[in-house]
């Protein structure tokens, strides 16, 4: 037997740290839906977590100018001074938080910010409290870094928000972090100052627990909702809070891959160590574009927010008119997280049983050619997520199909 044959028979053995982790359900559904489209099926995909607007022109021009100036080399490890100054200005101007430049980090997307922070701070067995529904990567990143996700269900009756008594009960001597996301992907729920205050009181009683807040959808809030972030409410939390943000959603820059955060200097320094051995600096051109985004005109944000709100109202209204579905009105982001308990226990026209939200979403894709994501992917069932960051025409057609599909179920 040759050496090559022995290697082939042995096969690949994945590291134990990823044994329980797979490719995101969202990506899997998207891949299947796109394959169906390539086969000629009229699939409408409502799973994408990115705005359907274009990157603002001034941002694109800034990137082109950076290229023309030759700014195509390595930059400082965790962000250029120019971008860190722009981020510090944003935090001061919009959030009322003062961060020095050595309290700011920049990475290749907010996902890397989270990874760097957890990798730099979690020891095996450390616990991270995560309210569900949650963005699918949160728990997987914690596990890869050796931590233990402590998932706390927060259903529609709680407005998809964590309550103080739940937080108090979940904290143990092993708790390292609490991770909050407002407005939320997938629910669109947001924490007001009144919502945050009881949670802050709990954190103040447990000084060993650090707080990570993902504010990525900060600029996409509706009905006059006043966005805030915990450090702006309680400055004493600044010494143990990482405030995460980025340019992906507000500025429609998902592909530019720039995330940033403000936090304690020691944590930021430790995160730089992780980044230095992973990706090194973010793209120089993307950083120049992000400076223009943060320092440039912000007036376009209102128009885009109004467009999203119009589509939100369309989707929520139509979903709540469908028998078996129940949808809260989200305060922000561009998702609905609709309950589908009313369709469980039904049978499809082809005789398949709908026992779970995953079954229901598979039915919508197979029979109605509408791709949505089951709540189980976000840690809470029975719900499903729709992204309404797509054209109104596609939304109307998709909702028509969902309505017909639900009407065709046998009860």
Index terms:
7-stranded mixed beta sheet, 411 residues, Aspartate Aminotransferase, domain 1, disordered N terminus, alpha/beta, single chain
Description:
It catalyses: L-aspartate + 2-oxoglutarate = oxaloacetate + L-glutamate. GO terms for molecular function: L-aspartate:2-oxoglutarate aminotransferase activity; pyridoxal phosphate binding. Residues 43-402 form the Aminotransferase class I/classII large domain. The protein has 14 helices and 15 strands. It is of the alpha/beta class and 411 residues long. It has two domains: 16-53 and 300-408, Aspartate Aminotransferase, domain 1; 73-295, Type I PLP-dependent aspartate aminotransferase-like (Major domain) (Aspartate Aminotransferase, domain 2, 3-Layer(aba) Sandwich), CATH 3.40.640. The chain has a seven-stranded mixed beta sheet, sandwiched between helices. Strands 9-10-15-14 form a four-stranded antiparallel beta sheet. Helix 5 packs parallel to helix 6. The chain starts with a helix and ends with a helix.
Lay out the secondary structure.
Blueprint: H1 3-10, H2 25-38, E1 44-45, H3 57-68, H4 81-95, E2 104-107, H5 110-121, E3 127-132, H6 137-144, E4 148-153, H7 164-170, E5 175-181, H8 193-205, E6 210-214, H9 230-233, E7 241-246, E8 259-262, H10 265-276, H11 284-295, H12 300-320, E9 326-327, E10 335-339, E11 346-347, E12 353-354, H13 357-368, E13 370-371, E14 373-374, E15 383-387, H14 392-407
Parallel strand pairs: 1-13, 3-4, 3-5, 5-6, 6-7
Antiparallel strand pairs: 2-8, 7-8, 9-10, 10-15, 11-12, 14-15
Helix pairs in contact: 3-11, 4-11, 5-6, 5-10, 12-14, 13-14
């Amino acid at each position: 037997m040759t050496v090559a044959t022995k290697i082939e028979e042995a096969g690949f053995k994945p590291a134990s740290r990823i044994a329980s982790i797979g490719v995101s359900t969202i990506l899997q559904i998207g891949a299947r839906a796109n394959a169906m489209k390539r086969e000629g099926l009229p699939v409408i995909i409502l799973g994408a977590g990115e705005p359907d607007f274009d990157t603002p022109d001034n941002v694109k021009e800034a990137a082109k100018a950076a290229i023309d100036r030759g700014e195509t080399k390595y930059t400082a490890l965790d962000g250029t001074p120019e971008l860190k100054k722009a981020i510090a200005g944003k935090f001061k101007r919009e959030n009322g938080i003062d961060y020095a430049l050595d309290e700011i980090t920049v990475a290749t997307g907010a996902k890397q910010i989270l990874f760097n922070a957890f990798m730099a701070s979690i020891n095996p067995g450390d616990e991270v409290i995560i309210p569900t529904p949650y963005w699918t990567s949160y728990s997987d990143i914690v596990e890869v870094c050796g931590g233990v996700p402590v998932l706390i269900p927060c259903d529609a009756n709680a407005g998809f928000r964590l309550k103080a008594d739940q937080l108090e009960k979940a904290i143990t001597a092993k708790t390292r972090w609490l991770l909050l996301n407002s407005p939320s992907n997938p629910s669109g729920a947001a924490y007001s100052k009144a919502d945050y205050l009881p949670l802050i009181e709990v954190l103040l009683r447990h000084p060993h627990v650090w707080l990570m807040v993902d504010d990525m959808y900060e600029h996409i809030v509706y009905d006059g909702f006043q966005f805030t972030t915990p450090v702006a409410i309680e400055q004493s939390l600044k010494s143990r809070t990482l405030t995460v943000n980025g340019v992906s959603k507000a500025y429609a820059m998902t592909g530019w891959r720039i995330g940033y955060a403000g936090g304690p200097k020691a944590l930021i320094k430790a995160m730089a160590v992780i980044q230095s051995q992973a990706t090194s600096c973010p793209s120089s051109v993307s950083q120049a574009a992000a400076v223009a985004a943060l320092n440039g005109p912000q007036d376009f944000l209102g128009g885009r927010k109004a467009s999203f709100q119009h589509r939100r109202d369309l989707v929520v209204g139509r979903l709540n008119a469908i028998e078996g579905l129940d949808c809260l009105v989200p305060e922000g982001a561009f998702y609905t997280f609709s309950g589908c308990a009313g369709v469980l226990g039904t049978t499809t026209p082809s005789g398949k049983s709908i026992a779970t939200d995953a079954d229901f979403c598979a039915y919508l894709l197979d029979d109605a050619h509408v791709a949505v994501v089951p709540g189980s992917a976000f840690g809470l069932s029975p719900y499903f997520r729709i992204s309404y960051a797509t054209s109104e025409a596609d939304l109307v057609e998709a909702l028509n199909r969902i309505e017909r599909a639900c009407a065709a179920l046998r009860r």
